[in-house]
Structure formats: C-alpha cells, structure tokens
Amino acid sequence: MKKIVVSISAALLFSLPVISFAETNKIPADMPEEAQIAMSGHLTNYNKCMMQSRLSNSKNGKDAQQHADKIMSGCETHLDDLGELLAKHEVDAGLTEGMKKTMRSRAARQLMARTMNNLAAQAAAVSNADKMEAAK
After folding, report:
1. For residue 114, what pLDDT is reported?
2. Minimal CA–CA distance to 47: which of 75, 86, 84?
3. Which helix (H) or strand (E) holds 60?
4. H helix or E strand, kind and range, residue 97
5. pLDDT > 90: what percent of the chain?
6. Which domain holds residue 69?
7. Domains in the chain, number
8. 48, 49, 81, 82: which could join 75 in a potential S-S bond, CB 3.0 to 4.6 Å?
9. Are 74 and 49 spatial neighbours (Cβ–Cβ below 8 Å)?
10. Cα(122)–Cα(115) distance, integer angstroms
11. pLDDT score for 18
12. CA 120 to chain centre
C-alpha cells in the first residue's frame, strides 16, 4: 500500500511541472510561419536601424557616449515590437528577454567598437596633422 501511494505521489509530482512547462515555455519555432517571418522582420529592422545610425558618426569624442545612447534608444522600438509579437504568441518571457538582451548587447559591442575605432582614427589624424605642421 505504501509503495502504491509513493508511486502515485511521484507520478503526480513529476507530471505537474511537465504540464505547466509544456504550456508556458513556447519557443519561436512554435509560432505560425507568418509570425516567424514577422519576427525575422523585426530583427532585420533592428539591425538595419543600428547600421544606418552607425553611419552617422559623432563629430568629436566628447559626445560619443551621447551619440551611442541616442542610437541605442532610437532602435529600441524594434526590440519592443519583437517583444510584443513574441508575447502575443505566448513565447516564454525569459526567452524573449534573453533574445532582446542578446541583440542589445551585440549591437552595443559593435557600436562601441566602431566608435572607439573612429575616435582613434581621428586622434591619429590630428597627431599626424600636428607633426606635419611642426615639420614645416
């Protein structure tokens, strides 16, 4: 009798998390095809926004951080749209936030690397100009 009660209890215990896991942890692949295409569109639009914004470099080093912040915040609406789409299709909230965080982090790293390279190039150009001026 004790063995049967333990077996039933164990079966119930293990079946409950599986049921809730299956119902709440959807992934983007579980969405309809048109929603997956829309998701790809949101990601592409975010990447395009970041790329177009990067083309407008800051003119001096003092406002580089402000320029980067402006670019990041200007493109954030695409990630918000992505989050809304995924929430609408009941994709796991943790996965959704992870996707948005990954996109944001990757974009920030690329943006800051480009900004730092541009600032270094500007500093080198100024240094070379000063050397040329001093040599005259």
Report:
1. 81
2. 75
3. none
4. helix 93-135
5. 38
6. 2-135
7. 1
8. 49
9. yes
10. 10
11. 44
12. 26
Tokens 């790329």 belong to residue = 51
**Contact residues for 29 (Cβ-Cβ < 8 A; gap 6+):** 36
Which tokens in the block code for residue 4?
């049967």
Find the mean pLDDT for residues 7-24.
Answer: 45
Higher per-residue confidence, 82 vs 67:
82
Cβ atoms of 54 and 71 within 8 Å: the answer is: yes
Q: Which two tokens stand for residue 21?
A: 């896991």
Mean of per-residue pLDDT scores for the chain: 79
Q: Supply 34's token pair.
A: 């048109």
Angle at 27 between CA 21 and CA 32, to 5 degrees: 120
Tokens linked to 65: 């951080």
> CA–CA distance from 118 to each of 48, 62, 103 (Å)?
20, 13, 22
CA dist list (Å): 78 to 18, 85, 86: 33, 11, 12
CA distances from residue 90 to 6, 15, 77, 79 in whole angstroms, order as listed: 35, 21, 20, 16
Beta bridge partners of 91: 26
What is the C-alpha separation between 69 and 40, in angstroms, rounded? 24
> pTM higher than 0.70, yes or no?
no
